Task: inverse folding
């Protein structure tokens, strides 16, 4: 089996991190390896790749076969293109200066493209963050409006309750006042009757005295006649 350029998993659960290693094709994925030439972290945007360019190119020229993911990584970093140019130099199709110039032009274009993609990703993340904040603000406003509505309803209910209590107290006071007035009226009538009785008695006594005086006068007159 030929030598392989492949990934060896590290990191933890749900947080993968990989080593880029040179290993025997018969060895287990996470087993022993010949040499470590870089690392690969797929979680950031864009992914973080740290690889020894010269060592990777040297192993390619020795015939090491990259896995599918490692082939994409090597292509992204320009190692496969550099290996292709070096084969052209070996065959005499290109001079070393021409190969280096082509690679530098490709590298510059690639860096500009990566920078543009990074800006696009950053803008997209900002827009997504803005949308999230806007959604949260909207939710908070709705919650605040709902709370204000509930408080208003509670205050109105409390105000209505206080008004009802006030009306009940006023009605109670009016009932008590009416009852007091009703009690006072019989007492006044009794007082008036009590005052009227002595006056009647006083009026009756002079009348009786006058009648007695008249009777006695008549008796005296009769007696004088007899004599």
Result:
């Amino acid at each position: 089996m030929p030598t392989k350029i492949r990934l060896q998993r590290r990191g933890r659960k749900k947080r993968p991190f990989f080593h880029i290693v040179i290993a025997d094709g018969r060895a287990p994925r996470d087993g022993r390896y010949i040499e470590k030439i870089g690392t690969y972290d797929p979680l950031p945007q864009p992914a973080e790749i740290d690889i020894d360019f010269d060592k990777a190119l040297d192993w390619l020229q020795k015939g090491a076969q990259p896995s599918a993911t490692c082939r994409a990584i090597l292509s992204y970093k320009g190692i496969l293109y550099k290996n292709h140019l070096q084969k052209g130099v070996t065959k005499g199709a290109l001079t070393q200066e021409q190969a280096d110039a082509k690679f530098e032009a490709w590298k510059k274009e690639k860096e500009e493209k990566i920078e543009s993609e990074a800006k696009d990703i950053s803008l997209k993340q900002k827009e997504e963050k803005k949308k999230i904040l806007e959604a949260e603000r909207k939710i908070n406003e709705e919650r605040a409006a709902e709370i204000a509505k509930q408080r208003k309803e509670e205050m109105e209910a409390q105000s209505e309750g206080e008004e009802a209590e006030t009306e009940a107290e006023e009605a109670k006071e009016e009932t008590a006042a009416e009852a007091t007035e009703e009690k006072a009226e019989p007492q006044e009538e009794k007082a008036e009757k009590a005052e009227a009785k002595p006056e009647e008695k006083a009026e009756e006594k002079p009348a009786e005295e006058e009648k007695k005086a008249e009777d006695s006068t008549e008796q005296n007159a009769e007696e004088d006649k007899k004599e």
Notes: The helical segments are 53-61, 68-76, 79-91, 96-226. Residues 26 and 172 are 101 Å apart (CA to CA). The two ends are 189 Å apart (CA to CA). The mean pLDDT is 83.
